[in-house]
Amino acid sequence: MDLLFCLAPGLILAVVLLGAHRIVRRALRLRRAWNSGLKAEARCLRMFTTTHGGSGDTSVRTTLHHVYEFRARDGRVVRFEEEDGPATTLEGDIVTVHYAEGPEVIATARARRRAGLAAPTVAALAFLGAVAVFCVGFMVTYSQMSDPFGFGEGTTETTDTVVIDSVTMTP
């Protein structure tokens, strides 16, 4: 039972750290594409939606996807998919994409908005940080209170015996 109280917060902490890694990685990729200064005209090849949830009492979440294709400065044809783009962009539309060159081309059709990227990133990281602090605090407090692995003080028992000499007194 003690292992459960250490394992559950540890798993939650691992998921939180993975989520924070993905959020920071996505923000850095967008920033890299915007800061590269490279732009190209891209054609929207396909637009589709995916849905998640809806079973039982859960709500349905619909995500809009766009598939774009453009020619990079070095002549390569680049095709990429982007989630949550504008619903006004339809198949066949021409849009401006920002991209960064390299072995893997990083591209986005989102307009450059620093505050539009920073605010949700900071909010998500603050929430995940609060969850991480709670998990670590819970594990530390629980281990101090119960010492599930026997590493704390008081693992060896000592008993003090007091011997009282009885004195018989007669009047």
**Could you spell the SSE succession in H and E letters?**
HEEEEEH
Distance N terminus to C terminus? 62 Å
Helix run count: 2
Provide the structure class. alpha+beta
Beta-strand share of residues: 25-35%
Q: Unreliable runs, pLDDT <50, ≥5 residues?
A: none
The helical percent reads 25-40%
Number of strands: 5
**Largest sheet: number of strands, sense, barrel closure:** 5 strands, antiparallel
Whole-number radius of gyration? 30 Å
Strand numbers in spatial order across the main sheet = 3-2-1-4-5
User: Overall mean pLDDT score?
Assistant: 83
What characteristic shape results from the CA principal axes? elongated
Task: Describe what this molecule looks like in 3D.
This protein is α+β, with helices and mostly antiparallel strands and 171 residues long. The protein contains two helices and five strands; from the N terminus they run H-E-E-E-E-E-H. The chain has helices at residues 2-35, 114-146; strands at 38-53, 60-71, 77-83, 94-100, 106-108. A five-stranded antiparallel β-sheet has the order 3-2-1-4-5, covered by helices on one side. Strand 4 (94-100) and strand 5 (106-108) form a beta hairpin. It is elongated, with a radius of gyration of 30 Å. It starts with a helix and ends in a 25-residue tail after the last helix. The mean pLDDT is 83.
